Structures are given as structure tokens and as C-alpha cells.
Amino acid sequence: MRADLEDAMHDISHIQQFLPCPTPQSWIDWALRHPDILLIDHAHCEKKAASTALNLMFRYVDRPDLLDALSQLAREELLHFEQVIQIMRERGVTYDHLSPARYAQGLRKHVRTTEPGRLVDTLIVGALIEARSCERFAALAPHVDEELGRYYRYLLKSESRHYEDYLRLAEQYAGESIEERVAFFKSAEQDLIETPDEEFRFHSGVPRQ
Length: 209
Description:
Blueprint: H1 2-11, H2 13-18, H3 25-33, H4 35-59, H5 64-90, H6 103-108, H7 117-140, H8 146-174, H9 179-194, E1 196-197, E2 206-207
Parallel strand pairs: 1-2
Helix pairs in contact: 1-8, 4-5, 5-8, 7-8, 7-9
């Protein structure tokens, strides 16, 4: 198991380098105190990720590369949703409504409103969300029970590919360097990750003291 974990961590080293900061230990401690909310919000995140991909497919029907990549991504996210729901049922955790984290909206509020900036920024935000999800699964895996840790490690490969797909598409459709926009969103993302939150969520910041 230790070898598997080390392999998985190695596989996402490029994501850890891409993100502006690691997940704080205080968030990991918070997650371990709220295992039911962790699972429920994880399920919501998978469903939202599929919805985001489908919305982009409806909006940008003239982008064949986007349609191909996001069609596969949406299918995988829905499969993950089904898998998390099954884990919850086995553990007696009821799937229910949760208020959303500020995280995604905190990134999306900076998306430009005219094209192609709107598409490029949306794809950059998608890349950051997928990268952070992957990094958090890896951060949690050593601390949760064996079954859940194995499942989180299983998710790393697909989450890593989703990040790469979003970033590749952003670069493809920008027509220019996206380095400045990526740096801007990284700064916003770091603030959301490192500042206090009132409620625990999969993408929340640190607990308010």
C-alpha cells in the first residue's frame, strides 16, 4: 500500500508544482472530523464537474476538440458520482443538499465576459478546480481508512488528466500566451485555499479560529 501511495504521489508531482500552495494541514484535520460531509460534498463536486463539462459542450458546439475531451470528462465524472454514492450507501451516509463552497464562485467571478476570454478563463478555472481536487485526494489518502484511501488514489489518474485537458484547451483556444491569466487565477485560488471558511467543504479554506 505504501508503494502504491508513493507511486500515486509521484504521478501528481506536476500538479503539485502547478498549484500555488499545498492544502493546509488544518483543512485535512477538519476533513477528518467531518467524514460524512466530506463524502456528501465529494458527490456534489463530481455531479457539478459533469454539469460544467456538459454546459461547455452546449455553449461551444463548434469546438470539436472541446467536445471530444469534455464528453469523456463528463462521463467519468458521472461514473465517479455513482461510485461515491455507492460508498455512502454502504456506510449509511445519506446524500442530501449542502450549501456550496465559496471556492468555485470565487474563481468564476473573475472570468471575462467577452470571447474568447470567457472560454479561456472558464477552462483555466476548470483546470485549477481539477488540479486542486486531485491534490486533495492525494493529501487525504494517507489519513482515511483503507477502502477510502484506495479509492482516492484510484481517482488521481483521471483527475490529473482532466486538469491537463482543461489547460490544453485553454492554451489552444487562447491564440496567445495564457501565462498571465493562469498566474492571476492561481493567486485568487491561493487566497481561497488559505483563508478561513465558516463551513467545511471539499474545496473550503481553513477553519476559522
